[in-house]
Amino acid sequence: MLKSIIAFLEPNHKPEGYIFSSAKLVTGLMVLGLLLYTITGGWGTIACLALAIGLMIGRHLLVKQATNDFRDLHHAKKGYGQTRNKDYLRFIKARGEQMLRDNKALTKSAKIEIRELLAYAERYL
Questions:
Q1: Confidence (pLDDT) at 2
Q2: SS3 (DSSP) at 124
Q3: Which one of 19, 45, 64, 87 is CB 3.0 to 4.6 Å from 33, fit for a cystine?
Q4: Are 19 and 59 a contacting pair, CB within 8 Å?
Q5: 108-124 and 86-102 are packed helices; what angle lies between their axes, rounded to 10 degrees?
Q6: What is the DSSP letter of 19?
Q7: Which regions of the chain are under pLDDT 70?
Q8: How far apart are CA 105 and CA 22, in angstroms?
Q9: Predicted local confidence at residue 16, as pLDDT
């Protein structure tokens, strides 16, 4: 069992999505809440758990937004392939650059995928 835990914690074996995981921060807040329980009479625990829930909701919203944005980008690439309308390429360029600029929680693989889509758009513009 210890080997499977160590294998999961290694960076090469983690499943990667579009947004960084918040699991370590949430776990840290829960442990901090446990430690604060006796000191604060439960109020510190409530605060830590509220922060953890807020963090999970925020990550959920970021994942949902990133998933929709990537779906739109790939749909635009497919649309350009079918119609040769350059507006699709301009959308890919504008949205991809905005995602790279605004979303600091993107994983390395998500950034690579955006750069590939931007290169595709630049090639045909």
A1: 72
A2: helix
A3: 45
A4: yes
A5: 150
A6: B
A7: 5, 7-15
A8: 10
A9: 72
- Collapse the DSSP code of 122 into the 3-class scheme (helix H, G, I; strand E, B; otherwise coil) and give the result: helix
Contact 95, 121 (CB under 8 A): no
Residues counted in the chain: 125
Amino acid, single-letter form, for residue 6: I
Beta carbons within 8 Å of 34's beta carbon, 6+ residues apart: 45
CA-wise closest residue to 118 among 73, 55, 84, 85: 73
Q: Taking the alpha carbons of 14, 110, 101, 62 in that order, is the dihedral positive or negative?
A: negative
Quote the DSSP letter at residue 103.
Answer: -
Sign of CA dihedral 28, 33, 39, 40: positive
The residues spanned by each domain of the chain are 17-124
8-state DSSP, 11 = G
3-state DSSP call for residue 106? strand
Q: Where are the alpha helices (DSSP H) in 10-107?
A: 23-40, 43-83, 86-102
